[in-house]
């Protein structure tokens, strides 16, 4: 039996015992991870995913792919050149189990991609969360009703009436 799973924007056809190289995951070597985005397993085809299906894999190692070199050359008047290299970070996995049903209730943690830190902000990202003392202070302010009110120093002052040109001529 085989399954087709989706991770890192790619699809993989896997069987039990296969070794995969996927985009870097937030897991350490020796951890077990579970993929829940299953497009097909056995004879069941999802629309778009198979509900309750999962693939369990063990993390072997985190590796880097071969270096890819990009060369940019601008011809004619500019005559500039630039060479850049890139090594994609990958996670090496060994597929241990294919679950046709019951993957929702398993105790294996879900496979989550690792962020490099310079990408867009993701909902639920802990770097943007308040620490415990700030949360307690905000809860106390909300409970006492101070959260949305302005203090006496920052309260809005009454605006001074502007004199228009017509009003100034009548005063003079």
TrEMBL record:
One of its GO terms (molecular function) is rRNA binding. GO terms for cellular component: cytoplasm; ribonucleoprotein complex; ribosome. Keywords: Ribonucleoprotein, Ribosomal protein, RNA-binding, rRNA-binding. Residues 147-158 have a biased composition (Basic and acidic residues). Pfam families: Ribosomal_L21p. It comes from the Bacteria. Residues 106-172 are annotated as: Disordered. GO terms for biological process: translation. This protein binds to 23S rRNA in the presence of protein L20. Belongs to the bacterial ribosomal protein bL21 family. Part of the 50S ribosomal subunit. Contacts protein L20. This is Large ribosomal subunit protein bL21. It comes from Paracoccus sanguinis. The lineage of its organism: Bacteria, Pseudomonadati, Pseudomonadota, Alphaproteobacteria, Rhodobacterales.
